[in-house]
Specification:
The protein has eight helices and nine strands. By secondary structure, the chain is α/β, with parallel strands linked by helices.
């Protein structure tokens, strides 16, 4: 039986205000040793090798695409039902987006529709595990293998979901996760890139580390603290 994971109703840790205050006082509101610990714990939870934090799940997706070094102008296939920002960032990465229809029972990518959409220019596919319902990964991986396609799983709605007992996000070359307030794990924002190969992980991390970081204190005082005050 299919069981969806609701994305409504934020789960708030009771010590959130104290955690935020302590980070602000240490000057570690955005960066700090906790991030590395979180990456390690996240990878261990999935049984994955490499997990790298990003500002958003969609930005993690962009970093993965660039790290996979897919040639510009190549086609990438996404499900017809998806968040608009994901195909837009694929376009920003220099790829041509094509859409495959979804299964009416799960709202996930239909493997038969995927295969019909593939052309000689297709180089990647993005199975999206919507509402925690996993895609038919056996069929998708079989198709991807026969057509030599990179597989990037969209797990923004699906942290904790499994397919045949295995966590989603561990089947493809990479996967994105989101920690926006209404996602399965609420971190008031942020995302994670999970990748299989060490060389790809290093390219993702290089992109993250090249970002200009804003002033910690200014961000703490003007952004998240105000949001927390409204929540509490």
């Amino acid at each position: 039986m299919l069981t969806a994971i609701s994305r409504y109703g934020a789960r708030v840790h009771p010590a959130t205000q104290q955690i935020v205050t302590a980070c602000r006082e240490r000057g570690e509101f955005i960066q700090g040793p906790q991030i590395a610990s979180f990456e390690q714990a996240f990878a261990a939870r999935l049984g994955a090798h490499h997990a790298i934090t990003a500002s958003y799940g969609r930005i993690a997706f962009y970093f993965i695409l660039k790290a996979l070094q897919i040639p510009a102008g190549s086609e990438i296939i996404l499900p017809a039902l998806t968040f608009w920002g994901v195909p837009e960032l694929a376009r920003v990465a220099g790829l041509t987006v094509r859409f495959a229809d979804v299964d009416p029972a799960t709202f996930c990518m239909d493997p038969a529709a995927l295969e019909r959409t593939i052309t000689e220019k297709t180089r990647a596919v993005v199975p999206t595990h919507l509402y925690g319902l996993p895609c038919d990964m056996d069929a998708i991986l079989d198709i991807a293998g026969r057509h030599n396609l990179a597989v990037v799983e969209d797990c923004a709605h699906a942290l904790g979901a499994t397919y045949r007992g295995r966590p989603v996000g561990t089947f493809g070359d990479g996967a994105l996760f989101s920690f926006q307030t209404l996602k399965p794990l609420n971190c008031y924002g942020g995302g994670m890139a999970v990748v299989r190969e060490a060389t790809v992980a290093e390219r993702v991390r290089q992109q993250v580390e090249a970002l200009p970081w804003p002033d910690e204190k200014r961000i703490a005082n003007k952004l998240l603290v105000g949001r927390l005050q409204r929540i509490f």
